[in-house]
């Protein structure tokens, strides 16, 4: 007589309701997303023609447009490059999660920027603090140039170029809390942070009527807007979210894939030409100048980090060289449209020293777990570059800029320092408060998930199957 495995039958009967519930949840989400898609589709009738509009084709410069679109593509590549750069640094059980987070941010901010972000930054000024909603959903943003920002390219080209800056900024922050952030909380954080931190700062510095722009603060491609805001947000996040469970003061994270780090750094260096030279918004002599100083500063800072790592550890680290190059790119960013090649060497060396020392101090003398040193590299690299812009800037290089301290205008240095302080304090304080408000949702994964690694625990995917 055949026996029946009652244990297996009971297990199957218990699993059936769970599977049915999961199916119901899945189909409910399908319906919700379909409703959203249909609603948005219907709403498009209210924006008919918003992406084209009437325009004078003779005012569009094909070369400038091609360069800005190419630059936008270069900057877009930088966001997944950040994923590889960071992904190589973390433990092998978290590499997928880091790259996934960078791609998540690419998706979220791309939509946020079209709906509301662009308007909050470049819309009609409201008291020097924020842009209005006149460009909501890109209404009125079409083929015609916007003379306030770029008079030879379609405003749509300017919009998508600026979108890439808005995207990469929160992607930089994730390095401060890798291996422990809760995914659903990260989604909300990115949406809110982009709207209440990045967008106001970008308007202050770049928007017509922005109060820092009116004061004469110089930031050619995002030293304050992108790097200082991301770096000090990262510091706040590290403090609020807390240390990794296996954190040890003075002990660096064990990188799982150094070639990934080097690949990410190389792609960042490559993309940065679009970041800085593209900010000329034209295929012009200024774009050439920005291109040259960007490369030179990166090289100088990379060599500086190599020498310092050699002196500290008796071996010239490949990772240190690559990280140093990125720090040089950060520092030259605000200055890239205002300084010459020799000044860019000085900026690279000085920034290399500052960022290396800041990393050393954070890791050796504090218990702050800014895991991949976002504050040291981007925050303090941005601070160094923005201040040095006030020293080395030359109006002869860019008539829209100003002279710095070394060229007879000490006031520019004080303006740069003010912009640095305001940006750093605003980003740090608002990020700190925002994360505190999100904490009831759970800022970090469980101890079990952190031990298992986010690749499997959160995403169900392994980075390596050896």
Describe this structure in words.
InterPro entries: Ammonium/urea_transptr (IPR029020), Ammonium_transpt (IPR001905), Ammonium_transpt_CS (IPR018047), NH4_transpt_AmtB-like_dom (IPR024041). It is a multi-pass membrane protein. One of its GO terms (cellular component) is plasma membrane. Residues 66-464 form the Ammonium transporter AmtB-like domain. Keywords: Ammonia transport, Membrane, Transmembrane, Transmembrane helix, Transport. This protein has 466 residues and is mainly α. The protein has one domain: Orthogonal Bundle (Ammonium transporter fold). It has 15 helices and two strands. The protein has a two-stranded antiparallel ribbon with strand order 1-2. A hairpin with a 3-residue loop joins strand 1 (125-126) and strand 2 (130-131). Helix 5 (183-206) runs antiparallel to helix 7 (223-241), helix 8 (258-277) packs antiparallel against helix 9 and helix 10 packs across helix 12. The radius of gyration is 24 Å and the shape is globular. The two termini are 46 Å apart. The mean pLDDT is 94.
